[in-house]
Amino acid sequence: MAGWSVRDIPDQGGRTAVVTGANSGLGYVVARELARKGARVVLACRSETRGEQALERLADDVPDADVELARLDLGDLASVRKFASALPYARVDLLVNNAGVMALPYGTTADGFETHFGVNHLGHFALTGLLLPALLASPDARIVTVSSLAHALAGIDPRDLNNVRRYGRWTAYARSKSANLLFTHELARRLAARDGGPHVTAAAAHPGYAETNLQTAGPRAEGRRLAEHLMQLANRVVAQSAEAGALPVLYAATAPAVAPDSFTGPSFAMWRGAPAPSWRAPRTLDDAMGERLWAASERLTGVTYDALTG
């Protein structure tokens, strides 16, 4: 893993990948590098305008790229279902659950869920479940969910999944990122228990501190100009590039022998550098909590993973 870079990505010819939030930041870099290695890539984006701009940019960066755009709003379960049902491929080899929101003022999704929990976790939980039959049709599929070091700030509260008791933007974000890791843990456990053995690998990754538009979205939404400028300054001075931040995600998505339920991040203090195994809070490996979150997620989204038990 030492010194791993995009040059080490294996050939992806013949593989179909779905990348959420692929119009900018980490998602764009992941989609571009997968396409560069020969994958057919579906850019799953909420904004059709920004998605079209990403398609044009990709055509310049990788002229022979096999890419297409499909609208997906993870904050609207009807949109998630529409995306999954319209996807024209019976087999999906890679799903990268990358899109997300960070440290926003309190709000709710179209279905009434607190925004961080609804978009970062429930939207991806529903999408993964709906695409699972297509993933199981692949001889070597992967599901990579992007979490964050910020998960260490707070675990989920099963009595307050919607963060309504005492809302804090960073606490809500941290809980959603803990949910991403618990989801990966429980999914990997259920895949391992499935008859016929696991040929779908569920893993997680994080970018360390990478410069994306996530950091400034919250302050900008509230008109907090000083906070926005401070975030921009921190991005310039402290953060690594989106190109570097995408490496752990690309490693988890493509490197040989990635272990189920692994968590990959940058090597230097989990902050920047080449991909390496990353520390995670022990609570994100709790079977009982994973089962509780799973049951609640099925109930709230109406998506059940019947393909794992059928």
Descriptive account of the structure:
An eight-stranded mixed beta sheet has the order 3-2-1-4-5-6-7-8, sandwiched between helices. The protein has helices spanning 25-36, 48-61, 77-86, 115-136, 169-193, 214-222, 225-237, 242-245, 247-254, 287-301, and strands at 16-20, 40-45, 66-71, 94-97, 141-146, 200-205, 263-268, 272-277. It is 43% helix and 15% strand. The protein has 310 residues and is an alpha/beta fold. Helix 4 (115-136) links the parallel strand 4 and strand 5. The radius of gyration is 18 Å and the shape is globular. The chain contains ten helices and eight strands.
Task: Please summarize what this structure is.
With 310 residues, this protein is α/β, with parallel strands linked by helices. It is 43% helix and 15% strand.
Low-confidence region ranges: 226-237
Helix-strand pattern, N to C?
A: EHEHEHEHEHEHHHHEEH
**Helix- and strand-based class?**
alpha/beta
Overall average pLDDT: 89
User: Would you count the extended β strands for me?
Assistant: 8
List keywords for this structure.
alpha/beta; eight-stranded mixed β-sheet
Question: Topology, please?
Answer:
Blueprint: E1 16-20, H1 25-36, E2 40-45, H2 48-61, E3 66-71, H3 77-86, E4 94-97, H4 115-136, E5 141-146, H5 169-193, E6 200-205, H6 214-222, H7 225-237, H8 242-245, H9 247-254, E7 263-268, E8 272-277, H10 287-301
Parallel strand pairs: 1-2, 1-4, 2-3, 4-5, 5-6, 6-7
Antiparallel strand pairs: 7-8
Helix pairs in contact: 3-4, 4-5, 4-10, 5-10, 6-7
